[in-house]
Amino acid sequence: MSNRPSTGRARLALALAVLLGGGALTALPARAATAADGLAVQYRTSASGATADQTEPWFKVRNTGSSTVQLSQVKIRYYFKADSSTASYRFACSWAVRGCAAVTGTFGTLSNPTATADRYLEIGFTAAAGTLAPGADTGDLQLRFYRSDWQTLRQSDDYSFNGAQTSYASWDRVTARLAGATVWGTAPEGNAPDPTDPTDPTDPPGGGQTLFDDFAYGSHSDPALAAHGWSVRANSGGPGVPGATWDPAKVTFVSSGGKSVMNLETSTAGTGASTTQTEVLTKSTKFRNGTYAARVRFSDAPKSGPDGDHLVQTFFTINDLKAPMADDYAEYDFEYLPNGGWGEPSNILYTTSWETYDPDPWQAVNQHSEQRSSYAGWHDLVVTIDDSAITYYVDGQVFGTHDARYLPERPMSINFNQWLIDLNGQASTTPRAYDQQVDYVLHVKDQVLTPAEAAAKVAGYRAAGTGFVDEVPAS
């Protein structure tokens, strides 16, 4: 936004701790059911403690039969003991070779509870997951589930959990069905998998469709940039200095640390006519709840000329204000002011969640958090939005948590821009230019990832040589 965030009640957020402990089941020999077509399931966990903030069962499914298998006909069940009779759970896919959008997760209740299992997580696949040829496997299915209230859960008493199995190995305490027939594993006593078992109707769909871009383009006019859904702004208007222009040519792609990064240059010689600003945004407004992450390099000083301008460097999501004080407006900002502005004397980083505003006369309904210190250099910025809160992270640490009253009611675009609030910070007419850089952007629809999980997802894409993916459906 082009205006200073109004004073809000900054809430101190408590980070959820992962409590690690002992206690693990011993691996049992695999006993697959005899069938003309067969599957084998390998399992490992990346959350091996007796208690944790979430359970992380990772799988690989191999076709051990002699004919090709449609993954849409495969169901895997992981059995666990609920921490209380009223506890509800949510499923998430952190990474899957076949794509998280092709993986589903639903919860069910066992008809014959045991001491180690009264619920199950059933993993399935959409048609988009494709097929498994004989001898082939799915590759990683990096999955997780957690309590809806994010209370610590106990997993050491869960039938399918094995904290000692931190590398993939066959594990028969999960079951697999193919076209309705059990072909792998042993269910808890008295609970043979039944395709008609009810699932928990309160559990939401898994989501997980992803946008990822590492900004490996040749220039602002590279056809791939537009083909991948990005718009480089050229139209006039706010925010920023009256008379300034938004110059697409000042958006370039340069090498930093051996990687391509997007560079946004903003410059001025002390007048509106001499001021050029930069913005890159998605053409689609299709992003709402989930996780947003970007690695951004902020600059405290210009690369040339005198310092002091009231500059704003950003990463944010936004939709359009249909009318003054319209209640379906939404905006979620990281805004760094290296030289102050909006009444601040020096550098400050804001995160702001917007409900609405009126530009004239100015009034705003929002909540913000701030830190008055230098943020020059590279930073990992993450904001998560679910049905209860908006949480901002900087470099893995909670920066601020904002109230549910500011949750989005309509989808948004994803934006980066750099602009000048005014020309009061530096009166010189000597030209000067500032750079903001962006390494990557990630959005995961309807799933709340930790900063570490977001970073791991990015690393997974890069390790696979994937520079761009957009699975997020149009709103």
How would you sum up this structure, described in words?
By secondary structure, the chain is mainly β. It has 2 helices and 31 strands. Strands 15, 18, 19, 21, 26, 27, 28, 30 and 31 form a 9-stranded antiparallel β-sheet that branches. Strands 16, 17, 20, 22, 23, 24, 25 and 29 form an 8-stranded mixed β-sheet that branches. Strands 6-10-3-1-12 form a 5-stranded antiparallel β-sheet, with helices on one face. It is elongated. The chain starts with 38 loop residues before the first strand and ends in a 5-residue tail after the last strand. The model is unreliable at 1-36 and 195-205 (pLDDT under 50).
Entry keywords:
mainly beta; 2 helices; 475 residues; disordered N terminus; nine-stranded antiparallel sheet; single chain; eight-stranded mixed sheet
User: How many helices in DSSP terms?
Assistant: 2
Radius of gyration: 25 Å
In terms of DSSP E residues, the strand content is 35-45%
The number of strands is: 31
Outline: elongated
| Terminal Cα span | 23 Å
Low-confidence stretches: 1-36, 195-205
Class derived from helix and strand content: mainly beta
Largest beta-sheet details: 9 strands, antiparallel
Q: Specify the helix fraction band.
A: under 10%
Round the mean pLDDT to the nearest integer and report it.
87
Describe the SSE topology.
Elements: E1 39-45, E2 51-52, E3 57-63, E4 69-70, E5 74-80, E6 89-96, E7 103-114, E8 117-125, E9 131-132, E10 141-147, E11 153-154, E12 169-170, E13 174-178, E14 181-184, E15 210-213, H1 223-227, E16 230-232, E17 245-246, E18 251-256, E19 259-268, E20 276-282, E21 290-298, E22 311-318, E23 331-337, E24 348-359, E25 362-371, E26 377-385, E27 390-394, E28 397-402, E29 413-420, E30 432-445, H2 451-463, E31 468-470
Parallel strand pairs: 17-20
Antiparallel strand pairs: 1-3, 1-12, 2-11, 3-10, 4-9, 5-8, 5-13, 6-10, 7-8, 13-14, 15-30, 15-31, 16-20, 18-19, 19-30, 20-29, 21-26, 21-30, 22-23, 22-29, 23-24, 24-25, 26-27, 27-28
